[in-house]
Amino acid sequence: MGFCKLNMFFLLMFMIYFPVPVSGFSLQSCTVSINTAVCVKKRLTAIPKDVPPTVTGFDLSVNRLTRIQQSDFPPLPLLLFMDLNRNKISEIDPGAFRTLTSLRRLNLNNNKVIKLGERVFDGLNNLTVLRINYNQIKVLSSTSFQSLTKLEVLDISHNKLQKSADLELILHHMPQLQELVLRGNSLKAFNSWEITNRSLALHILDLTLNPLKDFKVTSDIFQNLTRLKLGNPKGNEQTIWDVKNHTFLSRVSNLDISGLIMTLDDMKSLLEAVTSSLTSLRMNSMKLNHSQLINMSCSLPTMFILQFQFNKLKNKIDSYFFKSCVHLTELDLANNYIEHIPENAFMTLKDLKVLILSNNKLSSVPNATRTLQNLIELDLSSNNIGSVTCMDFSNNVKLKELALKNNSIQTLSDCVFKNLLQLQVLRLQSNQLIQLNKAFEKNLPNLKRLYLNGNKLKKISAKEFAGLRSLQNLTLHQNQIKDLVEDSFVGLTNLTDINLQTNCLTMKALKTGAFNALINLRSLDLTSNHIKFEPLSHPPFSNLSRLERLFFMGQHLNGNQHLSINSLQGLNNLLYFNARKNHLTNLDNDTFTYTPKLEYLDIGSNDLKTLSSQLFAPIKNLKNLYIHRTALHSLDFFIEANLTKLEFLEGRHNQYSVITEKVIKSLPSLLFVDFTYISFSCDCDNVWFINWTRANKQTQVNDAYNYSCNYPDNFKGKKLLDFDITSCLPDKGFIHFASTTGVILFFLVISFTYHFMRSHLYYAYHLIWAWLFDSRYKNKQASHRYDAFISYNSNDEPWVIEQLLPRLEGEQGWRLCLHHRDFEPGRSIIDNITDAIYSSRKTICVISQRYLRSEWCSREVQTASFRLFDEQEDVLILIFLEDIPTYMLSPYHRMRKLLKKQTYLNWSRAADQPDVFWENLRKALQTGNKPDGEKLLLTVIETQ
């Protein structure tokens, strides 16, 4: 045992002076964001091994992985999502994912897998979504999907599967599969008997872009199918439809037959199979007679939604085209080259609520739309519309969303939207608008979102938006706005977001007080304008007390700038401020006095060179700070900045070369730090930072393994974390010599002490135990249940039973406590001994040589002697069964010192006069406990 303890001691010393490397939070190839390991575009050829086991997401997309092997993934017990999209994976070993037992979603899209081998997905028993499209899969093994019993979505589209029998290998092991996407494979036939005879759980089946020649269903396997996609817009071969019973697809509500080539009879048979359930139909890129298809499909009484794109209708729409579509509520005619629509083309569509005419060739709003009085959504985007008139939407009084984006509209009139009292969304972006002409001054009281970006507006006149009292979002970016007036935004009291970036605004426009009316504004974007910072008598944002996000970056100015002290006055609730890339050379210490709640601050890409700790004094809630490209020479301002809540720090591309311990420890909440492209000094000044980067478990040091040295010259170009820190450590020779000498001396002292004073050590050991138990019981006033407790060795038990017990209990009538008779079963021995001593008036120790060698007897006599010494009462009687040599009494030298004052008897000398012995013992028991009571003194002869 002693040797083992010595080994542990030296092991501990070794760990102190030679610390074992610890896996830190600085990943070599990845970063961790929102508990997801992000390793995108890192040119990886192997799976990183240093990913924390606590991540729930793992993104390895856009790398150079070619094979997934069994040993590639470390145990990631909490991983739920993994993305391997856009690698070069051609081979996956059996059980390669077995350590990812909690994985729910796996993306293997855009790789080069040709074959899914045996048990390739073993271990993924909890996977629910698997996407493996855009590979080259030709072959499936019988056990490829064996473990995927909980899979709900499988997308294996755009591969090279050819046989419908392959589907059996997929569906056989997936009883819970609800969505199967086989889009863009090489399936030429779908025969239900080759798949299964049982009912499938499938809700969605996508067979689009397959060269299907036969679609045959001979049994009711699709009892749960609600969405079926069969089309092939790129195909040129006819498909034979063979569904034995029309009820087999009677639950399909969403059908896509885009590009499907069939005879009219087969098409009728197809539609008859879904006549009782179909609600939505897609017939894009059809090659049959369009008018016949429309009338055939519209005859279905339950169909309400029709998509009819890419059919090159151009001028084919006439007054009878949609005659039978009386039940339609949604009609999508986008991408059809439509130039003209007859005025009465939609007369029968009385219930139509959504009409999409985007991406056509319309030069004006068709008059036909005026007949659609129940229309809620109208999309005319991406046409050739040059103007809109007051009559265009006069009858569409129920419209809630109107899209006119990507047209050529140059101007509006004040009556164009006058009847659209229920309109909530208006899209006018990417037109040629120069003036608004009071189109919004009195109209559109319920509009919530207005998109005017990407036009040619130069000025926002007074009360231009006064009628938009419900507006919440206004986009005016990418215009040419230079002038604002005081009343430009009057009436927009409910506006929360306004985008004014990429215009020509100057400080003159801000001085007008145009923003004062926006009392509920939450987000303001003024990026990429021409606003020059200067002291203002009336701060431009003083009324925006609810503003939370202010974007002020990238002002197109020349020369140095200075953010004035009162620029942010009034922004008491500001959380986010971005002033990146503004040529700022100085920030006054009181800049953020008015923004005490600020959490996100970006002042990167400026020429600040230095920052003061006082600058951050008012913003103690700051969590994200960007100071990249600011030419900073030091980070010492952090030491007294008191940024205890800072979690994210980006300090790339600066001129400091040393990161000190004080700087890092002044940021106790730091979770992520980025010091890439810093010219580090590879010397002893950075030793602490190197050790911290390797070992800390809280802060992620982004891309730390690629940090490079720039000083001194002989280390230039080398990696910071490769720097040998042993040269910076103090000379350990003397420390090792001193520690080794100390250890040797310590063991020498212990050895000599044990050899020459082991009896004293033995005594001290028992003395401590006795003191501990006496401290527990000496204050207890327990009643004396016994006259005496008999302490003896088990080898002396015959004398106690045959001699002592009959005399004291039988003849003299004393109540004695003996451990074999009176100790309480189940209690610890120590507790029983102590209770017995303190609940007895006296303790009689029957001493022999065997008694002195007994550990329990020694504890009993020591506890009794403590009671004697501490209570100063005559409670101890010693009976020597034999003559004891002096050297054997040495462990009890304190007791020997007091023997002259205490009662003791010698049985070995009472052989001639036993009655005298028992009489003396009776008297000793009879005397009181007071120390001045009667004593009985006998002599013990010391033998050599």
UniProtKB/TrEMBL annotation:
Main location: membrane
Bilayer topology term: Single-pass type I membrane protein
Entry keywords, A to Z: Glycoprotein, Immunity, Inflammatory response, Innate immunity, Leucine-rich repeat, Membrane, Receptor, Repeat, Signal, Transmembrane, Transmembrane helix
Transmembrane segments: 734-757
Record GO biological process: inflammatory response; innate immune response; toll-like receptor signaling pathway
Superkingdom of the source species: Eukaryota
GO molecular function, one term: signaling receptor activity
Gene3D superfamilies, A to Z: Ribonuclease Inhibitor, Toll/interleukin-1 receptor homology (TIR) domain
Name used for this protein in its record: Toll-like receptor 22
UniProt domain TIR: residue ranges: 784-925
Similarity field: Belongs to the Toll-like receptor family.
Signal sequence extent: 1-24
SMART domains, sorted: LRR_BAC, LRR_SD22, LRR_TYP, LRRCT, TIR
PANTHER family xrefs: LOW QUALITY PROTEIN: TOLL-LIKE RECEPTOR 13-RELATED, TOLL-LIKE RECEPTOR
Localization per record: Membrane
GO cellular component, one term: plasma membrane
InterPro entries referenced in this protein's UniProt entry, alphabetically: Cys-rich_flank_reg_C (IPR000483), Leu-rich_rpt (IPR001611), Leu-rich_rpt_typical-subtyp (IPR003591), LRR_dom_sf (IPR032675), TIR_dom (IPR000157), Toll_tir_struct_dom_sf (IPR035897)
Keyword Protease: no
